[in-house]
Amino acid sequence: MNKEEFKILFDLYFEDIRRYLYYRCGDTTVSTDLAQDTFMRIWEKQMDLQAERDVGLLYKIAGDLFVSHMRREKLR
């Protein structure tokens, strides 16, 4: 995935992912951070996602990051 493809994916889905995470946690800061982490994971792993085809994977990654975050918070 090149920078332009990533930007398109980010622009299309960042707000949707952020809202999904906000619905799950109720915290604007946490939901924004986790949404950013979702897209950073895609960029770092150089996943070749097609926006329409792989949107479910975005939500899967976001959900997994949310669960990990909640586990860490529970241990504090």
Molecular structure report:
The longest helix has 23 residues, at 3-25. The protein starts with a helix and ends with a helix. By secondary structure, the protein is mainly α. α2 (28-44) packs across α3. The chain is 80% helix and 0% strand. It has helices at 3-25, 28-44, 55-75. It has one domain.
Give average pLDDT, whole number. 91
Distance between the termini: 37 Å
Radius of gyration: 12 Å
Tell me, what's the shape?
elongated
What is the strand content?
under 5%
Number of helices: 3
Largest sheet: none
What is the domain total for the residues?
1
Q: In total, how many beta strands?
A: 0
- The class by helix and strand makeup works out as mainly alpha
**SSE ordering:** HHH
Write the layout of secondary structure elements.
Elements: H1 3-25, H2 28-44, H3 55-75
Helix pairs in contact: 1-2, 1-3, 2-3
Notable features of this structure?
mainly alpha, 76 residues
Short summary:
The chain has helices spanning 3-25, 28-44, 55-75.
